[in-house]
Amino acid sequence: MRSYSYLMSDQGAQGGHYVELLESKLQELLRALLERVEVNEDWYLAHNSDVGAAVERGELRSAREHYITSGYFENRMPRRIPVNESWYLGEYPDVAEAIKAGAFASAQQHFTASGFKEGRLPSPGWSLLG
Question: What is the pTM of this model?
């Protein structure tokens, strides 16, 4: 399972059929899957201060609740996701070039800053679902 922005784009589309579905119904289906995603409460709150503030105000029960209802759909990461540096750079030569040019310090930094949102995988066969 990749990022929401990836699912909503036509990236990686190779043939197949398009299915029209109300976004609210798609989100309802995805939320059932998101129940299986590991959310690191401490990490999520540390990296999403707005969520931490909402939890403190009692508007949300937890980081997990936010991730399932909104965070995934906002392309937020549920936890630190380690990147296989050599695989990532081999798979995404544009990232290797960006690192050489000084735009990023590492594959991990790229993935955290933009790769996840773009639907890039941090390692072969990776999925949010484990």
Answer: 0.84
